[in-house]
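Schema walkthrough. Field components (list of strings):
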Amino acid sequence: MRRSILLNTLTASLTVFLSTTAILHAAPSGVLKIAVGADPETFDPHFNDLPTGNTVDLHVLEGLFRLDAENNVIKELATDYSYSDDGKVFTVKIEKGRKFSNGDLLDAQAVAASFNRLLDPKVASIYRGLYSSIQRVTAPDEETVQFHTAEPNGHILLLLASTTATIVNVSAIEKMGSEYSRKPVGSGPYMVESFVGGERYRLVPNPNYQGRFPAKLEAIEFVVVPEDGSRMALIETGEVDIVERVPPESIAAIDALDQASVMKPPSMFSINMEIVLRGAMENPKVREALNLAVDRKGMVEGILGGLGTPSVTMPGPGTQNELRVTFDPIPYDPQRAKALLKEAGYGPGDLSLTMVCPNGRYIKDAMVCQALQGSFQAIGINATAKVVDRGTWSEIIGRKPDQREDNMGMVGRATAGMDFTLYRLFKTGVGANTTGYSSPRVDKLLAEGRATTDVKKQKEIYAEIQKQIWEDRPFVFLWYQTQAVGVSDRVKGFQVQPNETMQFDKISLQ
Amino acid sequence: MFVFKRMIAAIPTLVIVSLLVFWFVDLIPGDPARIQAGPMATPEEVEVIRERMGLNLPALTRYAHFLEGIVNPEVAVSLRTGRPISIEISERLPNTLIIAIGGLVVGVLLGTIAGLASALCQGTWTDTLITAITLAGISMPIYWLGLLCIWLFAVHLGWLPAAGAQTWAHFILPILAVATRPAAMFSRLVTASLLEVIGKDYLDTARSKGLSEVQVLLRHALRNSLVASVSVAGVQFGAMLGGSVVTETVFGIPGVGRMLVDAVTRADYPVIQYAILMFAFFFVMINLLTDIATQWLDPRTRQSAGAA
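Field assembly_structure (string):
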């Protein structure tokens, strides 16, 4: 009897041991096929501006930190970190003995070189401004990296967790030149095996990977199909396992398929009509009236096909959730809006406004613009909607407030953190503050929020800032976009971050 | 001599095109630096990117760089990728040409067969059916037709892949879609040409020599439509190159047309300029080849050219 129990125990232990070992060291298996709409012309994280490029950077490169599927910061290459007493030096310890996929050593020097490239004005990275609070990066020894800032910066951890801050192999860039942008050499679980511009790219496991998120798949193949209808056809025919950016009109068709359905993860994209605070728009009653005139729920259901959630604060979900606070949704009340306009001295037809919207940048943006025009006209405003191409739109919304001829522009904001988003948009006189918003109280709080490294204090400060901005109504707040991704039933464990970056840490194929 | 003269005449055309392309692209709304910097960038950050892109140089200097890029392709790089545009184009041009040439060949073949059938069966239901189909072919926008092909052959029947360019099978649907319009036009052209000569004496002479009806049609009657067909083929090929923008977008084919659309969206000026210049060069060459072929096929034009 005792022998039998012992034998059973041993057998069971062996089984558990073998299966655990098998799980831990399971060889990557299966080929995942994904159809994407946008053509990532570069994977260089210092120049890429597309979520499809972020997806590649997340898996081919590694950062000191990274974001998980809920946008929480987790360690990647970093083992430990600390702030100096004056808060101006942020020190990160990294794992020893790590290598890039080409065998080059990934030590603190390599990390510093990567960041110094990002900060180099000659390189002119499109993200240099985002990291401008960092003056220089040094490597006192092979496992210590130090970030030197002019002022204490309590938000540096989040900056370092973005795919922009993933570590590029600078010596490989020098050797490869512009080809590096297509086949970046990193230390992530995958590497780019092939890239056919405008058509497809393929990731395969990196045999030198030593980190905590090993490749689960034998290969990941991306095919670029910009046309929505053609891209949706690929999941209907089973040619791909995942299609990104499912348009509202295709959701029901994909959900009706036997082998696939639409996944709707939240998105950070906060879509608003940003008001140029000039003339009549400086009057809070007018701005409140504009906000009350919009039937957000109706537009989300009727135009966006449900791919949105009415705004409850300016920053979108996933923009540092620990610092984000929400408020009551803005009601749809055209009667009250008319009354407010009257109180402000504007009868029917007295007030005219022009709004600028892009075409094809956000979900159904042109249609939303037309609907907003109708909403504002319904409360007696002579509203004109101007739907323009992306080039014209980006030029108009980038102008300084005194150079703008329009009264509001549709813009979606989806940036890494609370400090960056709010400081750039609402600090008086900052170059990216294109609405002319100015509040001494908000300015003071923004400076305090940036300087403090105490999370509890940050929470209080950013709650105050968000409340003030919500009450001031510098925007006609609209909604947060919802992502729509068609996923085959054979795909398990697929995740998408709120910034639309796909994540394959837990993925498996059946 | 005629060919040489025509080639010399093409040079000023291309010079004028290069000027137009450069200056008109410069007028496109949108600032490439601002687009690349994104909506959160400050004017100072945009300025740094503009400087890297060389956009703050005087227009004449930029035009000189543009011309230099024609002679030395290594210096002409994309603002977005930093790669030489000649490489970007050479990677994508084969796809564009496969679809354009394939579409033209299939269109000519189908159109000629349909035209013959229509002429031989004048007044019958076959003729009516072919006329209806060709009218539909001429009228249908390629965008809609492409999606219809995907729905029918890929989604519904499952015979062919829906989009992409990985295998030869991926090119069948785009070639079929672009072949529709030339097929319809050739069908109408062949029918009209045949009906014009079908009762002529020289065909009776050919028949009296013992030639079969098919031989009479192919050797004598159809020859009448050759000159017009070559001209139409030239125009259609040019149109298909221009139309590649739509075809490549619908079928997810990485060709020069789609590259051009993406470049316009991203305000990647050098890519727009060189891609348009390349298309202009193709148009000039197609016109030249069409003229040479017409001269060769029709002795009357040869004589008039010689007289001139």
